[in-house]
Specification:
Blueprint lengths: L6 H4 L32 H8 L9 H11 L5 H15 L9 H21 L7 H14 L4 H21 L27 H4 L3 H17 L4 H5 L19 H22 L4 H21 L2 H11 L2 H4 L2 H5 L4 H9 L3 H19 L13 H14 L11 H18 L9 H9 L5 H11 L5 H14 L4
Length: about 475
């Protein structure tokens, strides 16, 4: 039976226990913050558990979980400032004469924490003040070992490269997402049929996987938290970071674009034989996406074919061999909270864990459902308990879900990219919903009074006809 990934699968835990702290009233004492035990703590205690000492380093699973969730309660730059302050205070780094032996035991642990933080959440360091905190604390320990300065320079260089790479996101392609109105015979320069660019369904499925992984790569784990951030009642009155979800939103727009692109390609041909050919082509593409583990493109294609302007084309569907399509629909059936899809996803995740090739590692989840799951997890459990402590148990589950996503998005695409196909996927004009209906009615005449009235209205508003 497939094994569900746990937090411990996501990262390697440390070997040392947590540092001694003085818990506040009502705080769970003596219970580990991981290992599945229900746990809660004050924000101050959780921050203390993040700070390394000469003989303690936090579990990596704890670092990821707390850094992911902490932004609900404190801004990253303020958290970094407090962590650096605690390091300076506890290790007496503000003294004129440092205990070099002690600093040499502490320094590597501090560097490791900062390396993990900047690697996983580089956007937390976009502000100059955060870099200032890094340089300040490292400047205090550098005199004890010159290698610290060199490693810090390497860390900052890697951080700069990561921020630069993430700044080259897919947002520049969003201009193509705006649907166009219907034109009876658009010039070839405006519209080219997809089958003229790529007639092999296996190749298109592979190119879709390229697009998916490229877009996924730009989504930071923190965006899943920031998408649902509400103001913390014990903190400021302003919502935090609600505008820092650009890549996540761009990915959702890509899904919508693919839906409309599929519908546009199907509705565009004038002859039903050609339309049926396009439908069967997309069925084969969707089936290959399923085999690859690209569930997001699979669902977008199915959604596009189930849009009303497409599904009403009865004469077209009569010429389609639909058995394969019904099997795919069954796999993505929303019944039972997408039970069939979740089973397939677990199978793909298990295959990825035991993969012998890059292709077997690919898992691209149905993204809207992933967002929905995280949303309901966020809404279903309080961030704080009645005593004001952080509900850390909730964030362990959140970290597990986001951690799986991080593993999946880091897979290198094994397929050779075809720029002409990916360019078409990003830039080919797509019809608006009204445009799709009009194209559909032009292809197969309205069958009832409601459709006739809508057709007349659309022709009047879009084509300027009465």
């Amino acid at each position: 039976m497939p094994r569900t990934l746990s937090t411990s699968d996501m990262v390697t835990p440390g070997s040392l226990g947590p540092p001694p702290t003085d818990p506040t009233d009502g705080e769970q004492i003596g219970q580990p913050l991981l290992d599945g035990a229900p746990s809660s703590a004050s924000l101050d205690t959780l921050i203390q558990h993040l700070v390394p000492t000469t003989d303690y380093y936090p579990e990596k699973a704890y670092i990821f979980t707390f850094l992911l969730s902490s932004r609900l309660f404190i801004e990253p730059r303020e958290l970094l400032a407090r962590v650096c302050h605690l390091c300076i205070e506890q290790q007496q780094l503000d003294q004129p004469v440092l205990d070099k032996a002690r600093v040499r035991k502490f320094g590597p642990k501090l560097l490791q924490l900062l390396a993990e933080w900047t690697e996983t959440f580089p956007r937390d360091f976009q502000e100059e003040s955060t870099i200032g905190h890094l340089k300040d604390v490292m400047g205090r320990i550098a005199p004890c070992d010159e290698t610290y300065r060199k490693r810090m320079q390497q860390l900052l260089q890697a951080l700069h490269q990561k921020l630069a790479a993430q700044g080259q996101g897919p947002e520049d392609l969003l201009g193509a997402d705006k649907p166009i109105s219907y034109r009876t015979k658009p010039p070839a320069s405006i519209h080219r049929e997809l089958l003229g660019v790529c007639s092999d369904p296996y190749t298109l499925a592979q190119q879709l996987t390229h697009v998916e992984l490229e877009r996924l790569r730009h989504i930071g784990p923190e965006e899943f938290v920031q998408a649902f951030v509400n103001k913390d009642p014990l903190a400021s009155t302003k919502p935090c970071f609600s505008d820092k979800t650009n890549n996540l939103e761009a990915y959702v727009k890509w899904f919508n674009r693919l839906c409309y692109l599929v519908a546009t390609e199907i509705c565009m041909p004038a002859k039903k034989k050609q339309r049926a050919q396009v439908v069967e082509f997309f069925i084969d593409v969707a089936r290959e996406c399923f085999n690859i583990g690209n569930f997001n493109s699979l669902m977008a294609i199915i959604s596009g074919m189930n849009m009303s302007p497409v599904s009403r084309l009865k004469k077209t569907w009569a010429k389609v061999k639909t058995a394969k399509f019904f099997i795919l629909e069954h796999q993505m059936d929303p019944t039972g909270n997408f039970c069939n899809y979740r089973t397939a996803l677990r199978g793909a995740a298990h295959r990825s864990l035991t993969a012998h090739s890059s292709r077997e590692k690919i898992v691209i989840p149905f993204f809207s459902l992933l967002i929905k799951d995280i949303y309901f997890l966020n809404e279903g459990c309080a961030n704080r308990l009645p005593n004001g402590h952080v509900n850390f148990e909730k964030f362990l589950e959140l970290a597990k879900q986001v951690g799986e996503f991080i593993t999946w998005k880091q897979v290198e695409c094994p397929f050779e990219q075809d720029p002409s196909i990916t360019h078409y996927l990003h830039t080919a004009p797509i019809f608006s919903e009204d445009g799709l209906y009009l194209a559909s009615y032009e292809s197969e005449s309205p069958e009832n009074q409601t459709e006739k009235e809508r057709w007349k209205s659309l022709r009047s508003s879009i084509l300027g006809k009465t």
